């Protein structure tokens, strides 16, 4: 294909535009509000004109403040738009079109669910189930999503089987993973929404992608969160020591043991959502690790079940 970067750039722009809509979904879906009406509004209720709603660029032009009332708005808005654009560009640049187009739908849906989970610690059932249904439908419409070749109906049936197998393996795997983790932790380790989410991931990625999303997502989450948690703990420990020194300086001559004891900060094991890391693992598999991971998993299964 001539001028491949031109089309990649076009999909990057398309992704940024869709990312603007995803910001609306991330905010309104948990509230049960329509994502279509009314149009984009400032927190003060003023409608946002299109020229103040240009993806990514508008935030910089406005210096992070609303033009109508001067309120600050989060840097996450351009971040979601930029990430969506990058993911759309990667899908088109790295994958054949029968995987690239559904991959864009997959990436956009995962971004919405990941940020909703970060905000609310919940994954809406409707959006979760919709992801699984979209994966099954797109597998039938574009069998190449699951590398299914052959003429109709063999290729379509093969892709449908791969998608449904991914749903079953994904939900079953995380259900038992969740049960084991809950028993070991002595409390609920993750929500049912994560189980349904992995079923939707399996619908797009097959059972191999679902397996990778669990373990790959755990590795990605640990790599990101562990250093942040350690830094946070060190900072809070320093704050606790300083507070303890201040308490000692104000203690009475008789000695107030409670005042002398430094107060502990938040524990390292703060509750974190698992959905964003499942999404990260799924996208890593879909974009970069599909071929090598699928080959190794198939070889391992052939050895185990021969």
Task: Offer a concise description of the structure.
With 306 residues, the protein is mainly α. It is 70% helix and 0% strand.
Report on the architecture of this protein.
This protein has 306 residues and is mainly α. Helices cover 70% and strands 0% of the residues. α1 packs across α3 and α4 packs antiparallel against α5. The longest helix has 58 residues. About 6% of the residues have low confidence.
**Radius of gyration (Å):** 24 Å
Q: For the residues shown, what is the average pLDDT?
A: 83
**Helix content bin:** over 70%
End-to-end distance, in Å?
43 Å
Which parts are unreliable, with pLDDT below 50 for 5 consecutive residues or more?
A: 251-269
The major beta sheet can be summarized as: none
The chain-level structural class is mainly alpha
Helix-strand topology string: HHHHHHHHH
Task: Give a quick set of tags describing it.
70% helix, 9 helices, 306 residues
Topology:
Layout (H helix, E strand, L loop, with lengths): L3 H25 L28 H5 L14 H19 L2 H24 L4 H17 L12 H32 L6 H58 L7 H4 L14 H31 L1
């Amino acid at each position: 294909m001539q001028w491949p970067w031109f089309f990649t750039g076009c999909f990057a722009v398309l992704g940024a535009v869709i990312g603007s809509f995803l910001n609306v979904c991330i905010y309104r879906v948990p509230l049960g509000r329509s994502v279509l009406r009314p149009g984009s509004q400032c927190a003060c209720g003023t409608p946002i004109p299109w020229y103040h709603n240009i993806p990514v660029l508008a935030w910089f032009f406005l210096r992070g403040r609303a033009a109508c009332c001067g309120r600050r708005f989060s840097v996450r808005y351009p971040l979601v738009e930029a990430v969506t654009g990058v993911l759309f560009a990667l899908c088109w640049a790295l994958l054949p079109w029968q995987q690239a187009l559904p991959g864009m739908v997959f990436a956009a849906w995962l971004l919405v669910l990941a940020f909703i989970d970060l905000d609310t610690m919940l994954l809406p059932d409707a959006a979760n189930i919709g992801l699984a249904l979209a994966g099954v439908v797109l597998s039938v419409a574009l069998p190449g999503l699951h590398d299914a070749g052959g003429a109709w109906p063999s290729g379509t049936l093969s892709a449908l089987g791969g998608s449904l197998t991914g749903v079953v393996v994904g939900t079953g795997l995380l259900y038992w993973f969740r049960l084991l983790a809950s028993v070991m932790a002595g409390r609920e380790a993750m929500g049912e929404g994560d189980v349904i989410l992995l079923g939707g991931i399996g619908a797009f990625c097959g059972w191999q992608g679902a397996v990778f999303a669990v373990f790959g997502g755990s590795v990605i989450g640990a790599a990101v969160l562990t250093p942040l948690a350690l830094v946070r703990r060190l900072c809070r420990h320093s704050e606790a020591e300083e507070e303890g020194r201040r308490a000692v300086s104000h203690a009475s001559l008789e000695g107030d043991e409670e005042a002398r004891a430094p107060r502990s900060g938040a524990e390292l094991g703060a509750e974190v959502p698992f959905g964003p890391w499942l999404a990260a693992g799924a996208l890593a598999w879909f974009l970069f690790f599909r071929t090598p991971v699928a080959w190794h998993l198939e070889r391992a299964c052939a050895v185990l079940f021969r």
